TrEMBL record:
<dbReference type="InterPro" id="IPR000212">
    <property type="entry name" value="DNA_helicase_UvrD/REP"/>
</dbReference>
<keyword id="KW-0413">Isomerase</keyword>
<dbReference type="InterPro" id="IPR014017">
    <property type="entry name" value="DNA_helicase_UvrD-like_C"/>
</dbReference>
<feature type="binding site">
    <location>
        <begin position="30"/>
        <end position="37"/>
    </location>
    <ligand>
        <name>ATP</name>
    </ligand>
</feature>
<dbReference type="InterPro" id="IPR014016">
    <property type="entry name" value="UvrD-like_ATP-bd"/>
</dbReference>
<feature type="domain" description="UvrD-like helicase C-terminal">
    <location>
        <begin position="285"/>
        <end position="555"/>
    </location>
</feature>
<dbReference type="Pfam" id="PF00580">
    <property type="entry name" value="UvrD-helicase"/>
</dbReference>
<keyword id="KW-0547">Nucleotide-binding</keyword>
<feature type="domain" description="UvrD-like helicase ATP-binding">
    <location>
        <begin position="9"/>
        <end position="284"/>
    </location>
</feature>
<dbReference type="InterPro" id="IPR013986">
    <property type="entry name" value="DExx_box_DNA_helicase_dom_sf"/>
</dbReference>
<comment type="similarity">
    <text>Belongs to the helicase family. UvrD subfamily.</text>
</comment>
<dbReference type="InterPro" id="IPR027417">
    <property type="entry name" value="P-loop_NTPase"/>
</dbReference>
<keyword id="KW-0238">DNA-binding</keyword>
<keyword id="KW-0378">Hydrolase</keyword>
<dbReference type="Pfam" id="PF13361">
    <property type="entry name" value="UvrD_C"/>
</dbReference>
<keyword id="KW-0347">Helicase</keyword>
<protein>
    <recommendedName>
        <fullName>DNA 3'-5' helicase</fullName>
        <ecNumber>5.6.2.4</ecNumber>
    </recommendedName>
</protein>
């Protein structure tokens, strides 16, 4: 029996009030580290143990898959191994949407075996609708489509708020039509189509209202319009709703997050009780002072007081350093002095900044883990094998069909592919049916016909194997017979890569699932939502220094935090132009700094390689906002009289922009950072490509596009 009284005793008065309020709608609006997440976990335990609410009637929504699994774990521990803890639904909004659509999607014409498209898949689908466009031209369109969906806007809606033209509307319509005809969903649809389901099917809405009697949402300040609408539908007349968040930590505006959602909560839910938590349990006063001195420059904030009993500790350090190598060296020296690797984290604004640290840490044998840029799932060989499996579960999956029909080459060029697809109108969209018709129709060259027949027979055989419940054998069969094994073995031997090992890891992961079609569907769904579940250890569970983007640090805490790259055009980022953009960057700064428990280091370089060229940097405006008495400064601030040898910054800023436009790769896929290419780290002419639009790549609801080449 869990000791609920002891748990309540461990809370302060306001937190306890929040746990005990289970009637009126509840808004907990409070600053960083004040125990909002702790309130949610305690509420769940309290509801089960004291209020007798059946665990399965509780839904908790978190921002990342990692947060969800941590919350599950916490609740389990609190309930002292009570088996019912597992029955709570603790998920992200997107994973909840997938869960709902798998159950009831058929009511709105969605097969239960639908595939969830990631950003790349969605782009390929859009490209297939508009073959005359280059992918590079379609990327911004796709981004805008996702943005529209996050805002809850369908192609038929009035899109004027998006500032788009008629062409966009037509493209959005065509994309949506195609996606629906194939029967798959993209990431944003997990929310959008769930809304559609609940709006159109009163029976399902009723089921949901009976199912959940308590809904709790963490990090509510980052919910977008679509999630807001979904939540509104989920909360039935007899349901208790509690949301917690911090308007100062809203950092996903570029993905459609609306800070308004949290501030207007009491207007939507009448009789709302608002509780503010004012004690920060995480950081020292020195650290909070720095965070507050910057965030107070944002206008229109909700008034909040935050105090801490941790008045001891040393002042945060502000280090002016030479360049990114020096930055990595300084951090390394500090880390090596006490070897508190596990308790330390390096936070940066863009993924590409990790490279200098990784190179230095490797050289000095400092253990580290990079969180964010997804490695495994994004690898070409893994995506290939998965494409075969997706196609196996859904023979209308055109994107994956196109990816694999001629990979490795089996004589089916673009002409043959067009001929095959031209049979679409005579089928229900099944690509295998089209293949059959094309083979019978004698319209393919001998070579293409042989390739098509082979591909079709291979899948027929695989389907039979799956029908027999031989999932692992079936996956091995497809990987081998499709030619992937030979293809990647050859590449491995040429380049000393480990691609075959990754294919093996994929099958290993699959082997822990039920060996039926259901097992495969569950595997693919979990993978789509959280690639780290792929039987591979989560990088965050490894030992060592954490390297992480600021976006990814939501909700986390570390004893010691290094905030790197505090320079104009890097942080705040170069895409920040309007006041709103700057305010968002300021909130990111606030999130970053408030991750620290005891030690904080702010780093600012005078020069840095941008697109492979040296750029002279100007200190971040956020540093100017920190009262000089709050930090210990080391080194000389660039731009001051002592910094001889550097040109004036205005002209250098110009020069930097020239570098950027000269060297910016054509296919930038990002709003906040775009693709960054940095060359020549550690003397190697290595190229790293990182797509930083999803700095928050691992942050759960978004699809990871971060990739190392
Ligand atoms: P964030 O805004 O960063 O998400 P939060 O408000 O969710 O932060 P928590 O993560 O719940 O804050 O709590 C911050 C830290 O303070 C955690 O280590 C937590 O265990 C601790 N904490 C919270 N409440 C108390 C308390 N009453 N007594 C002691 N420690 C507490
Ligand atoms: Mg939290």
């Amino acid at each position: 029996m869990a000791d609920i009284e002891a748990m309540l005793d461990a809370l302060n008065d306001q937190q306890r009030e929040a746990v005990l309020e289970n009637g009126r709608p509840l808004l907990v609006l409070a600053g960083a580290g004040s125990g909002k997440t702790r309130v949610i976990t305690t509420k769940i335990a309290y509801a089960i143990e004291k209020l007798g609410i059946p665990a399965y009637k509780i839904l908790a929504v978190t921002f990342t898959n990692k947060a969800a699994s941590e919350m599950k774990q916490r609740v389990k521990v609190m309930l002292d191994g009570n088996a019912r803890a597992d029955e709570c639904t603790i998920r992200t909004f997107h994973s909840f949407g997938a869960w709902l659509l798998r159950r009831f999607g058929s009511e709105i014409g969605l097969a239960s075996n639908f595939t969830i498209y990631d950003d790349d898949d969605s782009l390929s689908l859009l490209a297939s609708c508009f073959p005359n466009y280059k992918k590079r031209e379609l990327e911004p369109v796709m981004r805008k489509i996702s943005y529209a969906k996050d805002r809850g806007l369908r192609p038929t809606d009035n899109l004027t708020s998006l500032k788009v033209d008629g062409t966009f509307k037509r493209m959005y319509e065509a994309y949506e039509r195609k996606l629906r005809s194939i029967g798959n969903v993209d990431f944003a649809d997990l929310i959008g189509r769930s809304i559609e389901l609940l709006e159109e099917k009163p029976g399902v809405l009723d089921w949901v209202h009976h199912r959940f009697s308590m809904i709790l949402v963490d990090e509510y300040q980052d919910s977008n319009a679509a999630q807001f609408n979904l939540l509104k539908l989920l909360v039935g007349p007899a349901c208790f709703i509690c949301v917690v968040g911090d308007d100062d930590q809203s950092i996903y505006r570029f993905r459609g997050a609306e800070v308004r959602n949290i501030l207007s909560f009491p207007e939507l839910y009448h009789g709302t009780r608002t509780i503010k938590l004012e004690q920060n349990y995480r950081s020292t006063k020195h650290i909070l002072d720095v965070a507050n001195s910057v965030i107070k420059n944002n206008k229109g904030r909700h008034d909040k007081k935050l105090w801490t009993a941790k008045t001891k500790g040393s002042k945060p350090n502000l280090l002016y350093i030479q360049d990114e190598q020096d930055e990595a060296m300084r951090v390394s020296n500090i880390l090596l002095s006490d070897k508190k690797f596990n308790e330390s984290a390096v936070l940066y604004r863009t993924n590409a900044q990790s490279v200098a640290f990784e190179t230095m840490f490797k050289r000095l044998s400092i253990p580290y883990k990079v969180v964010g840029a997804l490695q495994f799932y994004d690898r070409e060989e893994v995506k290939d094998a998965l494409a075969l499996l997706f196609l196996l579960t859904n023979e209308k999956d055109e994107v994956n069909f196109k990816r694999m029909i001629n990979k490795p080459a089996r004589g089916i060029g673009p002409g043959a592919l067009d001929s095959i697809l031209s049979f679409a109108s005579q089928t229900d969209g099944s690509l295998f049916a089209m293949l059959r018709l094309a083979i019978q129709g004698n319209i393919l060259s001998t070579k293409a016909k042989a390739g098509a027949s082979y591909f079709l027979r291979m899948f027929e055989h695989a389907q039979a194997m799956l029908g027999e419940g031989e999932l692992v054998d079936c996956a091995n069969f497809l990987i081998r017979e499709a030619g992937l094994l030979d293809y990647y073995q050859e590449l491995d031997s040429q380049n000393s890569t480990g691609k075959v090992g990754n294919l093996e890891a994929l099958v290993n992961a699959l082997s822990s699932y039920d060996s039926s079609l259901e097992g495969l569907l569950l595997f693919l769904e979990q993978l789509s939502l959280d690639p780290t579940t792929l039987g591979r250890e989560d990088p965050r569970d490894k030992e060592g220094v954490t390297l992480i983007t600021m976006h990814n640090t939501k909700g986390l805490e570390f004893d010691r935090v290094f905030v790197a790259g505090l320079e104009e055009e890097l942080f705040p980022g170069r895409a920040s132009e309007s006041d709103d953009d700057i305010e968002e960057e300021r909130r990111i700064f606030y999130v970053a700094v408030t991750r620290a428990r005891n030690e904080l280091y702010l780093l600012c370089a005078r020069a840095r390689k941008i697109w492979g060229r040296t750029s002279y940097q100007h200190p971040s405006r956020f540093l100017d906002e920190i009262d000089s008495s709050l930090v210990s400064v080391q080194g000389i601030r660039p731009g001051s009289l002592h910094a001889s040898g550097f040109e004036g910054f205005s002209s250098l800023g110009e020069k930097r922009r020239e570098h950027l436009s000269a060297a910016k790769p054509s296919s930038s896929w990002g709003s906040s950072g775009g693709s960054l290419i940095q060359k020549g780290f550690g003397g190697n002419a290595k190229t790293f490509t990182m797509k930083t639009v999803h700095d928050e790549a691992d942050a759960g609801p978004l699809f990871p596009v971060g990739q190392r080449v």
